[in-house]
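As agreed, record copied across for absentees:
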Amino acid sequence: MMMARFIPVSSCQFRFSCRELPPSSSALNPRRFEVSRRRFPIKCSSSESDDGVDLVSINSSTYSWFTGLGGIGMLDTAYLTYLKLTGSDAFCPVGGGTCGDVLNSDYALVFGVPLPVIGFVMYGLVTALSAQLAEGNLPFGVSKTNGRFALFAATTTMASASAYFLYILSTKLSGSSCLYCLVSAFLSFTLFFLAVKDVKMQEIQQVVGLQICLALIVVASLTASYSTAQPIPSSSGDIELPYYSTEITTSSSPYAIALAKHLNSVGAKMYGAFWCSHCLEQKEMFGREAAKLLNYVECFPEGYKKGTKIFKACSDVGIEGFPTWMINGQVLSGEVELAELAEMSGFSLDQAKPLQ
């Protein structure tokens, strides 16, 4: 199958000089002419790429940014997927409301599929496409033009979805915060702007039309999926919690007691809040006896309500979530295994032997 293509030609000049030849004996050719001088200075230019007309022409150096940011997005959404599937959370933020509240809400599912899983697939698509485009070797015979178009469509879809989710987070889930969700939204917007910055000016109207169509499809799909979703009933900022003590139900092992004494001796501190479930779980790892030996700092000793300031000892060291460990100048956030605490503080098994 043959295909014809037309290339615009500019600044072309043609000059001819002809002379008449003597008539031949043939009646069919009474007069003949010969071109004696020929001059064809032709200058040709084409606005097309080797594989067709591009709506989006992305600079080759930009692909490395797509690949890097896409990889970070995959790590972020992979962690959110883990939190969603296990029903766990990283730590308790100072203002209350966690990623777990967001991920366990009805808005964390799109037509029954976990939202972080969809995000992981989209970031994976962007990463794979950009890596293949950088090498110029797309699978299944896909042209570079179609590959760039798919990359632009993917980033537009992700940015539209992120904008919609930020709206949901600020209206339906206003009592919760999720740093990892915000990181994902930032990455989506950054990828979108990287794609848009290389759009050709003469194609801007077609690109804007495509963006509007994709955004409308995304918003309509998410709205349909969330039509029966229930918002979190109350904002954590409106909750008033009087201070209460928590009960530790596990007993301490000799190893945990020895480790707690060692942590206290080296000046290690655990910062927490009475309402934080992860702080309680961290204490449960030590047990009743060992937990009493820890240098524990309560960041809301007077209770918690809207406008309550965090305890000065906690704000002075920049506590952002609970529990937070400060050991030998190093910061550990979230629940930490006893073995890791021992390694960070320089605790050895020999120190626990006398107590066994």
Q: What stands out?
A: The longest helix spans residues 144-171.
